[in-house]
Design brief:
Length: 140
């Protein structure tokens, strides 16, 4: 709806994009303490992240979302409902190209830990035969 308004449309100035991101951040309730058992807040956060992506692409700042994910979501990722984990990972992946270098450096250690959780650390997978995956990966 907001994208269809002329003040937020394709040629909207940067200050309007910031204003719109501020509205979306308010809907995501990024100032609230995160409760891993609050499914409504998790769903709202994911919806708002996906809603904000087109504006990040156009240069709107995503720092507040990224900082919230870094401080509140990633540390408890393994406790999140299974059905929401993939959506959060997708949203994080989609906003990552539009982050500032400073935000990227700040969130990188958390993302590395998250990758270990999501993919399984090598120590968890000793004795498995990965040759088929390696061959498939190198032939692409």
């Amino acid at each position: 709806f907001l994208k269809s308004l002329s003040i937020f449309g394709e040629k909207a100035p940067p200050e309007r994009l910031k204003e719109l991101i501020g509205i979306i951040e308010g809907q995501a309730d990024l100032d609230a303490q995160f409760d891993v058992s609050d499914a409504d807040h998790i769903d709202r956060l994911i919806s708002c992240l996906f809603m904000a992506i087109p504006f990040f692409v156009r240069g709107a700042p995503g720092s507040k979302f990224l900082n919230y994910l870094n401080k509140h979501i990633i540390p408890v990722f393994d406790k999140l409902p299974e059905e929401r984990k993939l959506d959060l990972l997708k949203a994080l992946a989609e906003i990552s190209p539009y982050t500032t270098p400073q935000d990227s450096r700040q969130v990188l250690p958390s993302v590395v830990q998250l990758l270990k959780i999501v993919t399984g650390q090598p120590s968890d997978r000793l004795g498995e035969d990965f040759s088929e995956y390696y061959k498939d990966f190198t032939e692409r």
